């Protein structure tokens, strides 16, 4: 199967092409089911490939499938090639597996939409691009997928582009990601200059072999981190992701919870030897930005009233945890949390979509309440996702988040800094438990506030929430099961239960930093964190059951610390003035210098052209004058005028 790993991205691409040609004819729901079938087929191929890798010795679990020579130009040789190894196949498994569930869910969610088939054209194209990103053997193939998911993100976020807010959100995502893309491109240029190749194996081998200079490794690390900040929504480039909730809910689940936003984390883990070779301040910066983003987004989530906006800021926060793990040298913990997060966050987003569907597209949590009785399956599965993200054992989120906090606590090289980052991470975990409990109470418990707004739903005068159809509920049930048992991937009890660690170890052994903590410390931290999270959930229950929301929801948090507003002001005023000044310099100085040289040459030519009249008598006069001057020169020199 390793020789045909190209089938994994090819199948969604075939779904894309078929729906482009026949999608409208197939209609609703056949075009959606076709797209889901293609993604499901890619999952089956990935699963078989996984078993093929597992059956091989540890040192043989890496295979490059070269499709053709893409760019053979001088010293640059880039192949269109795919890399199958434990990291890429792990990513491909949950991209295709969870992607298939989301495709099925979308068949029910998008039912009746006039652009039903077009939506699945974009979904399949996105799946193809994301698989190109993670399976790419070199940075350029990854960059092709990187740009592809950015384009698909724009298309899907602004899918309902007749709404001005959706069109604006799509453009915002596209422009913000271009900043990160610039960092990725600079990193590619530096890598080629340093090792003469864009292949990950060449770059990582140079780092492990000591031939990659530390300053170059640091520059590559920071440029790739800038790219990761754009794609994975970290400070200061997170601003696109909350607005991306304007897209249909399956988009939020697929792109902004389970797959695209994890691309930055994947990229950093892929080049972990380069990060380990860089100066020690580089991973520290990654950890600081991750912890700061996690805390910042968690504080904002506390005061959001849109059911999807809470989950959007939660996603930003959880991605911050993953970058804290990367900066701590805990790459296995970063991937572990990425996988468990894909389970419970996809569940929560799809659950929120089920609520929105049952509430006739209402998203304001202040107009919900007591929905558990009318939507029992949605409520039950959503509650499982809540317990997983809140860090309640034995749900999946507890194990992965605990690994990250432990890595920060036990960091051996810079203990003072990382103890502070551990404190930030712990406080963020408590905030997570608090705002997710708040969301569950406001949506599924308390008073049925939707009864007070039944007249606001236009034609739905007899408005009453209802449960979603089975095709939307089945993915919720499957994801809730994964959110419960997902922790078995890497349980910390014995060496034999650390399955993910052994699976990824050959790829991260150079960069992975093992912390120094006794068994007592590990158990104490785990039990203490779980107890504090339960206490935070209890506080939230007390506050919101007593309707004391205003005490913990200041307006500045609802406004996202006004950071987005500041960015808009800056880009519209001093930023615009700076751009206009740059354009003036380009127009009048840079272009002026070029145009000035051209004008001078043209005018000089016009003067010289006058000597070329075309009349023989004028040329004869010039020749005669030249002869006279030469004779005069020789005569004067002969008599000694010039010595």
Automatic annotation (TrEMBL):
It is a multi-pass membrane protein. The keyword Metal-binding does not apply. It is found in: Membrane. Keywords: Membrane, Transmembrane, Transmembrane helix. Residues 138-413 form the NADH:quinone oxidoreductase/Mrp antiporter transmembrane domain. The keyword Transmembrane applies. One of its GO terms (biological process) is ATP synthesis coupled electron transport. Pfam families: Proton_antipo_M, Proton_antipo_N. The chain crosses the membrane at residues 33-51, 89-107, 119-135, 141-161, 182-200, 212-230, 251-269, 281-303, 310-332, 338-356, 377-396, 416-437, 470-493, 523-544, 619-636. One of its GO terms (molecular function) is NADH dehydrogenase (ubiquinone) activity. Residues 70-120 form the NADH-Ubiquinone oxidoreductase (complex I) chain 5 N-terminal domain. GO terms for cellular component: membrane. This is Unannotated protein.
């Amino acid at each position: 199967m390793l020789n045909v790993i190209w089938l994994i991205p090819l199948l969604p691409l075939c779904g894309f092409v078929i729906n482009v040609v026949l999608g409208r004819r197939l209609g609703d729901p056949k075009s959606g089911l076709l797209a889901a079938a293609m993604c499901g087929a890619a999952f089956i191929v990935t699963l078989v490939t996984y078993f093929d890798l597992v059956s091989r010795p540890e040192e043989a679990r890496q295979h490059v499938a070269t499709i053709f020579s893409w760019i053979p130009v001088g010293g640059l040789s880039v192949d269109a090639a795919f890399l199958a190894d434990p990291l890429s196949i792990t990513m491909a498994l949950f991209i295709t597996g969870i992607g298939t569930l989301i495709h099925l869910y979308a068949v029910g969610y998008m039912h009746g939409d006039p652009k039903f088939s077009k939506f699945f054209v974009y979904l399949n194209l996105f799946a193809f691009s994301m698989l190109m990103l993670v399976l790419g053997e070199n940075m350029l193939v990854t960059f092709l997928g990187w740009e592809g998911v950015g384009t698909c993100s724009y298309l899907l976020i602004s899918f309902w582009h007749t709404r001005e807010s959706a069109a604006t959100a799509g453009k915002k995502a596209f422009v913000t990601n271009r900043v990160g893309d610039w960092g990725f491109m600079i990193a590619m240029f530096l890598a080629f200059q340093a090792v003469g190749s864009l292949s990950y194996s060449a770059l990582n081998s140079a780092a492990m072999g000591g031939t990659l200079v530390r300053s170059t490794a640091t520059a590559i690390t920071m440029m790739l981190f800038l790219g990761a900040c754009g794609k994975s929504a970290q400070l200061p480039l997170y601003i696109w992701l909350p607005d991306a909730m304007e897209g249909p809910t399956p988009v939020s689940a697929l792109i902004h919870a389970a797959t695209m936003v994890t691309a930055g984390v994947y990229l950093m883990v892929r080049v972990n030897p380069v990060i380990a070779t860089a100066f020690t301040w580089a991973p520290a910066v990654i950890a600081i930005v991750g912890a700061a983003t996690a805390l910042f987004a968690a504080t904002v989530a506390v005061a959001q009233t849109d059911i999807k906006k809470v989950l959007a800021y939660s996603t930003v926060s959880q991605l911050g945890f993953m970058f804290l793990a990367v900066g701590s040298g805990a790459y296995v913990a970063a991937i572990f949390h990425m996988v468990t997060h894909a389970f419970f966050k996809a569940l929560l987003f799809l659950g929120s979509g089920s609520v929105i569907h049952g509430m006739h597209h209402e998203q304001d949590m202040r107009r919900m309440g007591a929905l558990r009785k009318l939507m029992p399956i949605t409520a039950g599965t959503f509650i499982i996702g809540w317990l997983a993200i809140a860090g309640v054992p034995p749900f999946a989120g507890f194990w992965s988040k605990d690994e990250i906090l432990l890595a920060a606590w036990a960091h051996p090289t810079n203990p003072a800094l990382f103890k502070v980052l551990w404190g930030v991470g712990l406080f963020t975990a408590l905030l997570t438990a608090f705002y997710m409990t708040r969301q569950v109470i406001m949506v599924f418990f308390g008073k049925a506030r939707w009864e007070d707004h039944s007249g606001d739903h236009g034609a739905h005068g007899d408005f009453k929430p209802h449960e979603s159809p089975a095709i939307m509920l089945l993915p919720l049930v499957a994801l809730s099961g994964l959110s419960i048992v997902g922790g078995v991937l890497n349980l910390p009890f014995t060496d034999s239960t650390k399955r993910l660690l052994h699976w990824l170890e050959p790829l991260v052994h150079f960069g992975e930093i093992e912390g120094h903590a006794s068994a007592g410390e590990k158990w104490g931290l785990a039990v203490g964190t779980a107890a504090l999270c339960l206490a935070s959930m209890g506080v939230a229950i007390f506050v919101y059951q007593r309707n004391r929301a205003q005490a913990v929801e200041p307006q500045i948090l609802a406004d996202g610390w006004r950071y987005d507003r500041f960015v808009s002001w800056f880009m519209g005023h001093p930023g615009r003035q700076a751009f206009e000044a740059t354009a003036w310099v380009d127009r009048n100085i840079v272009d002026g210098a070029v145009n000035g040289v051209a004008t001078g040459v043209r005018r000089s030519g016009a003067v010289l052209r006058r000597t070329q009249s075309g009349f023989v008598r004028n040329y004869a006069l010039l020749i005669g004058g030249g002869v006279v001057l030469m004779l005069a020169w020789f005569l004067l020199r002969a008599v000694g005028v010039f010595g």
